[in-house]
Amino acid sequence: MVMNALRNSVIVAALLLVLRVYLGWSWLTSGWGKVTGEFVASGFIQGAITDPVTNEAGDAAFPWYVAFLVLCRWVMYSALWLPMEKYLLDWDLFLAS
Length: 97
Fold this sequence. Notes:
single chain, mainly alpha, 5 helices, 0% strand
């Protein structure tokens, strides 16, 4: 029944078209914000490192993820990454949208 409505209904097709265009546009504008420098994730990364998710015992629930974020922060601020960051990562995120 649902598949029949998805395949044959003009109203459902129009609603899905509107939804796809809206989601595509929001994804595209978010990607453009990353390219132009309006988005900075350093606060999120620093917060996740200093205050990780804990389990019942009070230990870090995902220590491998905290180690991964520390590595990402180190790579982002190293001399190897800074020249390439704007051209590779931001444009990749924008073009993927």
